[in-house]
Specification:
heterodimer; A: 315 residues; alpha+beta; 6-stranded antiparallel beta barrel; 6-stranded antiparallel β-barrel; 5 helices; B: 189 residues; mainly beta; 6-stranded antiparallel barrel; 3 helices; 11% helix; globular
């Protein structure tokens, strides 16, 4: 009995030590691709060397377009230019000058399971590397941010996103980067953007400088339809979208949409929430004509709207 | 390991509220050094509650508000001493344990990792350990230990949700500055 109790702690201490060393090793490996970004007053933010001369960051931490500097893992400070940014996925891409460092080892976010140990690695306080430990708290399928950005997987983290940790790397136990952490997508909740989404958005930002998105020029909110009306129209849901604003000269106004019209279907698909409309506004819809079924004065009418491209704020 | 750490962690009742302290080393057969924070041991004396429940008065021998360290001694023999680690070898990401009395909960343990080391933004001292571990008032002065259970720091404050600890090597330097080196005195005696 005595022997057993004296042996077990030794074994568990050995396992603990091995885990501790593995974690420190993972930090060391992944930390070589984590940078500090100076693009806002006071606290810098974090970024990941996605390619030898490309850094990905959280868009909401990039407060200026010019005079951005990046502190590299080797301590050098280099100028960076903003190659593009996308508010809807909270991603920004910076191009570095005179930096040729090994890029991050990118893993697949889809390999993660709820409960897996993960680290957030940032470089915010001074230039020293910072780490926080936690687990994957929730995983689910593709989702759309409140600004309409499409994210391939919902990854919620049970770890602390410290000040300056938006843009930090989500690192798995083997030291591979499996996402970009941000607190800017869902009211401060610690979320990670999957690597596949970062790849897709970064690619497009590098080529075009922005993410093209379809645009109707409408403001809408859900309304409840009467049971009789729902039955008469044969709608699957008793919710539809009432138009509360119409952009002057926007695609919808040109098609004749008016404030007060109730949108019940778009492109033949019933709509009950703005998400259903967003689903028809991917870049592949730009230039296409969509049939909008609306209720006006109790009668159904159809409008043909040619989807435009969302105007960019930064222009 | 936690049991071992708890055996060298004491409650310190000095200033307001109190905190924790570490049974650092023995200084001869009739005296023992306890390390805590300067902001925990404010007066010339401080009350100690040992892990076995004994209450003792300790003399505050030296304080260093700059480092936020205080050295206390008690005239007691046979007390355990902490296993002190080398804070120079700390790596970011390694596991750490903190023992203390957060909100008066005696002997509570918190686990986390080393967040950063060295000269740190949030810490005005030249050297600091910043740990991703949840601490509260009452953890002040208590031990921060590595995965071997060796004490690598003294928890001192919480800034921006992160624990700041004074590295064990800094504590050893503080004790040497007092002309005391753990072990030496025992050998001399």
């Amino acid at each position: 009995m005595q022997r057993a109790s004296s042996e077990n702690p030794g074994e568990s201490a050995g396992a603990l030590l091995a885990l501790s060393n593995d974690l420190a090793g993972a930090v060391e490996r992944a930390g070589r691709a984590v940078v500090a970004i100076y693009a806002r007053p006071r606290v810098p933010s974090s970024g990941i060397l996605w390619r030898p001369d490309v850094v990905v960051a959280a868009d909401h931490t990039i407060k200026r377009d010019e005079e951005i500097t990046v502190t590299l893992p080797d301590g050098r400070s280099v100028p960076a230019s903003l190659a593009g940014r996308d508010l809807s996925t909270d991603l920004a891409v910076l191009k570095l000058q005179n930096a040729d460092l090994p890029a991050a080892e990118i893993g697949d976010t889809a390999s993660l399971r709820v409960g897996h140990l993960v680290l957030a690695l940032g470089r915010s306080g001074g230039n020293s590397l910072g780490a926080s430990l936690g687990v994957i708290s929730t995983l689910s399928g593709a989702w759309r941010t409140w600004r309409g950005g499409h994210i391939d997987q919902f990854v919620r983290l049970d770890l602390a996103i410290y000040t300056g940790f938006s843009g930090s790397a989500l690192v798995d136990a083997s030291g591979r980067v499996v996402g970009l952490n941000t607190s800017g997508l869902a009211r401060g909740m610690a979320l990670a953007i999957p690597t596949s989404t970062v790849n897709r958005v970064a690619e497009e930002l590098l080529v075009k400088g922005h993410i093209a998105r379809g645009y109707l020029g409408l403001g809408m909110q859900p309304v409840v339809l009467s049971h009789a009306l729902q039955k008469k129209l044969g709608l699957p849901s008793n919710s539809a979208l009432i138009i509360v604003s119409v952009e002057p000269d926007g695609p919808a106004e040109k098609a004749g949409a008016l404030i007060g019209d109730v949108l019940v279907a778009l492109d033949g698909t019933p709509v009950s929430d703005t998400d259903d409309v967003q689903a028809k506004l991917g870049r592949e819809y730009i230039g296409k004509e969509l049939t909008a079924s609306i209720l006006r004065g109790g009668a159904v009418a159809e409008l043909v709207i040619q989807v435009g491209e969302r105007p960019r704020k930064d222009k | 390991m936690v049991e071992r750490l708890r055996r060298v962690t004491v409650q310190v009742r000095g200033g307001r509220g109190g905190g924790a302290g570490v049974l650092w080393c023995s200084d001869g057969p009739r005296s023992h050094w306890i390390i805590t924070n300067a902001h925990v041991a404010r007066g010339p004396r401080a009350g100690l509650v040992l892990p076995d429940g004994r209450f003792l008065y300790a003399e505050v021998r030296a304080t260093d508000p700059q480092r936020d360290l205080a050295a206390l001694s008690v005239p007691a023999a046979g007390l355990p001493a902490a296993d002190i680690g080398d804070s120079g070898g700390i790596r970011v990401g390694e596991l750490v344990l903190a023992v203390g009395n957060p909100w008066g909960l005696v002997g509570a343990v918190a686990a986390g990792i080393v967040h950063a080391v060295g000269p740190i933004y949030a810490c005005n001292r030249p050297s600091c350990i910043q740990a991703d571990v949840r601490l509260a008032p009452g953890n002040s002065g208590g031990p921060l230990a590595d995965a071997r259970g060796r004490v690598i720091g003294i928890n001192s404050m919480v800034a921006g949700g992160l624990a700041l600890a004074i590295p064990s090597n800094e504590v050893e330097r503080f004790l040497r500055g007092l002309g005391r080196q753990c072990g030496d005195a025992t050998e001399a005696a």
